[in-house]
Amino acid sequence: MSSGSQSDSSSSSAPSGSKKKTINGDISTCPIHIYAKQTLQKIQSLPGHEVASTFMRSVNSIAGLNGPMLVSSGKDGSVRAWDERSGSHGIKMTDLGKSRGLLSFDVSSDGYTVAAGTELQGDEALVLYWDPRQPAAPLRTHSSTHSDDITVAQFSSSRTNTLLTASSDGLISLSNADEPDEDEAVVNVGNWGCSISQAGWMPDGSNIWAASDMETFSTWSGELDLLQSHDIRAPCLHSGPTTWVTDYLITASSSSASSHLGVFVGSNEGDVALLSKGDLSLPQGEGEWSLHQLWSTGHEGIVRSLLWDEQGQVLISGGEDGKIPRLAWAIILRC
Question: Which has more pLDDT, 318 or 89?
């Protein structure tokens, strides 16, 4: 899921590297559906995972194969890279047949390392590392990075071997994915003290944002010192005649047109708003939250995930009402 949510009752959408496609995973069953991005007509279904799909993303390279490829993780314990031409997976990464559910994953920018985070099973939650050219078993398994569900695994775009992970245990970690010694692999750790549902890299490529299950939002330095922490529901914003009150955070995303992080939030009625705030990379930075755009006709319930297609100037969202609206936008974040 692009939002990082693992709810089994919601639909999910994930960005595709193709300019013509968007992805939807039916979480209550197994198939992954591919839609034409311009019309949202279903054009293909993939078999998906034996148990629920949990996360999907499109990558430009994996195992030496170039070109956009859909990759997904599932509670069946596998990460699969899909061949849309054959309608089946071309690569299936597993942990020697073990069915420990995977909640998050990422592929390094060079395509030669895949990392995934598992759900808690017994007293262990694992970070698994694969070479996708040898997918039958992980290269390494780290069990001490986190002590609860690992909800986020994301490589740095500027440092190929740096992996960001976050967990329901309240910890955010930065690890060296090339380090075989587990005791030496974790480089920095930050403790937020609340269950973390989402996290990602800020536009500068070094600082980090995170979101909790309690609708709080935070930013962290590259050494994982806490910079800012906010209740995302607190600001009541006004833009001309428009008043906006946030009920929950959907996700955050960076823009090539701005150095500021865009924060997408929602209402229980299905509305979506795009916010930003001053300089989130400074300790308790000054500046008010700003409302940049409001979409109020797409959904009739909670919005779970978003695809922000900056090049195509559309926002594609998935929600609990089962709809996948396509909303036009033209936004440049300025503060």
Answer: 89
pLDDT (tens digit per residue) in 203-250: 888 899 999 999 999 999 999 999 999 999 987 786 667 789 999 999
Taking the alpha carbons of 52, 54, 60, 61 in that order, is the dihedral positive or negative? negative
Judge if 92 and 167 occupy the same domain: yes
* 170 contacts: CB under 8 Å, gap ≥ 6: 191, 192, 193, 194, 195, 196
- Residue 259: pLDDT above 60? yes
Q: How far apart are CA 165 and CA 126, in angstroms?
A: 11
The answer to the question of residue 225 being in a domain is no
Of the listed ranges 19-23, 69-73, 189-193, 206-210, the least confidently predicted one is: 19-23
Q: Collapsing DSSP states into helix, strand and coil, what is residue 318?
A: strand
**Residue 170 domain boundaries:** 1-201
| Mean pLDDT, all residues of the chain | 84
* Biggest distance spanned by C-alpha atoms of the chain: 59
Distance CA 195, CA 183 (A): 24
Pair 155, 284 in one domain? no
User: Partners of 106 in the beta sheet?
Assistant: 115
* 81-110 average pLDDT score: 90
* Interatomic CA distance for residues 52 and 318, integer angstroms: 17
DSSP SS3 for 87: coil
- For residue 10, give both structure tokens: 């919601």
Q: Does residue 215 belong to any structural domain of this protein?
A: no
List beta partners, residue 24: 13, 33
Number of domains the chain is built from: 2
Token couple for 284: 């308790």
Do the beta carbons of residue 13 and residue 307 sit within 8 Å? yes
Which of 20-24, 283-287, 315-319, 324-328 ranks highest by mean pLDDT?
315-319
Taking alpha carbons only, the member of 242, 154, 249 closest to residue 202 is 154
